[in-house]
Design brief:
heterotrimer, A mainly alpha (290), B alpha/beta (322), C mainly alpha (268), B: 322 residues, alpha/beta, Rossmann fold, Alpha-Beta Plaits, 2 domains, six-stranded mixed β-sheet, four-stranded antiparallel β-sheet, 10 helices, disordered C terminus, C: 268 residues, mainly alpha, 75% helix
Chain lengths: 290, 322, 268
């Protein structure tokens, strides 16, 4: 009676051992093309899925996440995110309302190497696909704006998308603010000013106050530019940086004491004009170089 | 009103797919069974016995001819309230227990719960199933299944029962029990129609029999009548003779068998070709004395074999010029 | 009616004793394991995946039950010859067929009901695992009663599949019946393609044939509103009612055909 049991255990051990050998050798011999996708065409996949479209979309979503994660964590320098977009495309073709796939998928796609493929164009394409299925989903528009803003530094485009998002049903009002701020940071003060003037008409007192403050900031930024131009002219003419406002007054560039819209005087030091830190308008929106 | 009657009941099958040839399973069977009879339906394998029973139960449909049970056509649903049927080699739902199976069938007749329980219990007792009645039928032996089969045929106290090979699978004790059950049914006034190829059962139970062979009815009628004039041989019992005297008779072919019954007492079998009186007279000259002279009647088996031999071998229809 | 009920209860008993209901255990295990793993595998921000999987599992497990028991409903009785003793009782052949059908539908009803209860229980538990703010972003609540519409239509679809399997079971062997039933189910999902055939194909007769088939073949795709209820898209009650009526009429057609075939059959 013992013999068959021993035989069973030995054979099982053999099976496990051989599987380990298989594993150690690297599994099935490599193929040129990675074939994680048995079907590439989303249309064909929709057909084949019968009534299991949603579940298949979920499966492809899980695969996309796994692919992203394993590529990120991998030490192989050749590992690329080749399958990420195709998998996300399949996921969203099978289930066009799979919001999480669009939002997170775009994030995965936009991230620059080595944390992601750095394909902002694909990220935007994915989100625009989402908008096709749900044209009023403001989150998608907002995310497109974010991709433009954060990874592409295309501020006018970003602001345009934020505005679009704010105008969609359910779009939060603060997106308009964000659009305005984006424009300011992008150097488009006049567009920003227009937006804030719109917001200044709001019923909400807090929003009105904020809009007026922002408009004052924009004015301050204009004034600083003008003062800075004068200071630069002085420096070219006289050959040394402006030390204080008297220099400019004596040189004839200025009359009186320049102050910001709240009445706090500007400061000048070594030829640079800045807002006083104690001013209510501090800090001004940062303008990135270039 | 007859319990069962058939009129030229015929069943053809078509065998073969591309050019189906007809096969005659039953050819113009006409018979009558009166109420209260125990009727034996006999024949070799393949004779058409089961086919007839299935036609009566409307499990298959006749090619032509009619069948009636208690005056109603065989397919009538109403008449099935008053009949019971035991199929050959019965098989039931093996996930049910014997009790549940009978309860299920009893439910089909519309008995209320208490009545169902009573009937089921009584029937299982009658067919000799004890504690096994709570076991699932998949655990039953062939003999036990046979008993369950008989029980389910009787669940509604039928007026006519149809048994297809009721003794099959039973040991001698079981066969006797079922024989007694059939007699009890007869005593209750039930008509029993059973098919069998065990002739001894028919001999002990039946008042009337029919013999089918090759799909045709070979003979039908009262058992005693059928065998009445079929004298096979004579039995001559003599005393006071010795062996030697008998030798001459035997050599002459007048005696086919000699059985010693005692001292100088012999039973002689005289074939039909010989004359028993002549043999007697011959033995008398040697000092023999007549004890008895009786006809030896044919047994059912002899009769049966003779009928079968005359049966048609070709089961196909006569070719018709087209 | 009584006869049908008796036969139906017997079919149900057989299914239970054949341990069919153990599939419920597999279903529960599947749901629980997947909901646990989901947190590990994806950026799971909602219960969409559990809803998809739960509905698909209910539909699929019960589809297999409907087919594999359905194809044997009549065939097994004839093959094993238990039908001989049954038909000698005062039961019509039509009552036998209808009783078998009702029995399997009853089994499926019990199965679907228990699965639905378990499904909602799992969803209710998962609901407690997410923050209020996240839940506010979901298109539908975790224990959305709207999903019952999908489940009702799944059940009607199962009734139709059962009827197909039963009809085939009256004259065909199990292997062939299974292949044909699954085949019809698959083709029934391609209905939309049949309708659009004429746009794709040159030959007029082929287009007519396709169109004809579109109307005649059972349109299983119509019963699938799983994606809609998960995304909380509107599924009008009138749609549920008319689609259920379509299913009911088709079932009646198949049962009538089954009774016709069965009533003429010789049981050799």
């Amino acid at each position: 009676m013992r013999f068959p049991a021993v035989l069973l255990i030995l054979l099982m051990g053999g099976v496990i051992g051989l599987q380990a050998v298989h594993e150690r050798r690297g599994g099935v011999p490599a193929v040129d093309t990675p074939d994680m996708l048995y079907v590439r065409s989303p249309e064909a996949m929709r057909r084949l899925a019968l009534s299991y479209r949603s579940v298949l979309a979920d499966v492809y979503w899980i695969r996309a996440v796994q692919h992203y994660g394993s590529t990120r964590l991998s030490n192989d320098p050749n590992a690329k995110y080749d399958l990420l977009y195709p998998l996300l495309d399949l996921t969203t073709s099978l289930d066009p309302r799979f919001n999480v796939a669009y939002l997170f998928g775009a994030l995965f796609l936009a991230g620059p190497p080595p944390g992601g493929p750095g394909r902002t164009d694909l990220a935007i394409a994915l989100l625009e696909k989402g908008l096709q299925a749900q044209p009023d989903k403001w989150e998608f528009a907002e995310n497109i704006g974010f991709v433009h803003y954060w990874w592409r530094q295309d501020y006018p485009e970003a602001a345009a998308w934020f505005t679009r998002a704010a105008e969609m049903p359910g779009g939060p009002f603060w997106l308009k603010s964000m659009a305005a701020v984006t424009l300011a940071e992008g150097g488009r003060r006049d567009s920003s000013r227009v937006l804030w003037q719109e917001i200044a008409k709001s019923d909400l007192e807090g929003l009105r106050n904020e809009a007026q403050r922002r408009l004052a900031q924009l004015d301050a930024m204009d004034q600083i530019d003008q003062l800075q131009a004068a200071a630069d002219g002085f420096e070219r003419q006289v050959g040394r940086p402006v030390a204080d406002w008297d220099d400019l007054r004596r040189a004839g560039y200025l009359r009186g004491f320049p102050a910001d819209p709240t009445g706090t005087p500007y400061r000048i030091q070594s030829g640079r004009v800045t807002l006083d830190e104690t001013s209510r308008l501090h800090p001004l929106p940062v303008q990135p170089a270039g | 009103m007859d319990a069962i009657s058939t009129e030229a009941l015929t069943k053809h099958y078509h065998v073969g797919f591309w050019r189906p040839r007809p096969y005659v399973a039953l050819d113009a069977l006409t018979l009558r069974v009166g109420q209260g009879e125990v009727f034996g339906f006999l024949g070799p394998n393949g004779a058409g016995k089961t086919t007839t029973l299935k036609l009566l139960m409307q499990l298959i449909f006749p090619t032509s001819g009619r069948a009636e049970i208690l005056g109603r056509p065989a397919g009538d649903v109403g008449v099935r309230r008053r009949i019971g049927y035991l199929p050959e080699n019965p098989y039931f739902y093996d996930y049910l227990t014997a009790e549940e199976l009978l309860g299920y069938f009893a439910g089909l007749f519309g008995y209320r719960a208490a009545e169902r329980r009573r009937r089921v219990s009584a029937l299982l007792d009658e067919v000799g199933i004890g504690a096994e009645r709570r076991l699932q039928l998949r655990k039953f032996s062939k003999g036990m299944l046979q008993r369950v089969g008989i029980a389910q045929a009787l669940v509604n106290d039928p007026d006519v029962v149809f048994f297809d090979e009721p003794m099959s699978g039973l040991d001698p004790l079981g066969r006797r029990e079922i024989r007694e059950l059939i007699l009890r049914l007869r005593d209750r006034g039930c008509t029993v129609f059973f098919s069998s190829h065990v002739l001894s059962d028919a001999e002990t139970l039946c008042s009337r029999v029919a013999i089918v062979a090759g799909g045709r009815l070979a003979a039908a009628g009262d058992l005693s009548e059928l065998l009445a004039f079929q004298i096979r041989a004579w039995e001559l019992v003599v005393s006071g003779v010795g062996e030697t005297s008998l030798e001459r008779a035997r050599a002459a072919g007048d005696v086919t068998r000699v059985t010693a019954l005692g001292a100088q007492r012999f039973a002689l079998e005289v074939p039909l070709s010989a004359d028993p009186l002549r043999v007697m007279n011959h033995l008398k000259t040697h000092g023999g004395q007549l004890v008895s002279l009786n006809p030896v009647r044919e047994t059912l088996e002899d009769f049966f074999v003779r009928q079968i031999a005359a049966a048609p071998a070709n089961r196909g229809l006569e070719p018709v010029a087209r | 009616m009584r006869m049908i009920g008796h036969v139906a209860v017997n079919v149900f008993k057989e299914s239970v004793r054949d341990k069919v209901l153990y599939n419920l255990v597999a279903f529960a295990v599947l749901l629980i394991v997947v909901s646990y793993l989901l947190g590990q595998l994806t950026a799971g921000q909602d219960v969409k995946i559990i809803k998809d999987l739960g509905l698909a599992a209910i539909a699929t497990f019960c589809l297999f039950i409907a087919v594999f028991i359905g194809i044997g409903l009549v065939w097994k009785e004839v093959e094993r010859r238990s039908i001989y003793s049954l038909l000698s009782k005062p039961i019509r052949r039509s009552e036998f067929i209808l009783g078998k059908y009702a029995g399997l539908v009853l089994t499926l009803l019990v199965n679907v009901s228990i699965m639905t209860a378990a499904f909602y229980a799992v969803l209710a538990y998962l609901d407690t695992q997410f923050a209020e703010s996240v839940r506010a972003g979901w298109p539908a609540p975790a224990t959305d009663p709207g999903m019952l519409k999908a489940i009702v239509l799944i059940f009607v679809e199962l009734m139709l599949v059962t009827a197909v399997a039963l009809f085939l079971s009256t004259f065909s062997s199990p292997f062939l019946s299974a292949a044909l039933t699954f085949g019809l189910w698959i083709v029934g999902h391609f209905n939309a393609d049949l309708r659009n055939f004429e746009a794709v194909v040159e030959s007029r007769p082929a287009a007519y044939l396709a169109r004809g088939l579109y109307y005649v073949l059972p349109n299983f795709a119509a019963f699938d509103v799983k994606a809609q209820v998960v995304h909380s898209l509107p599924v009008p009650s009138s749609y549920v009612a008319t689609t259920a009526a379509y299913g009911g009429v088709y079932v009646s057609l198949l049962l009538t055909a089954a009774v016709m075939v069965f009533s003429r059959r010789d049981f050799k």
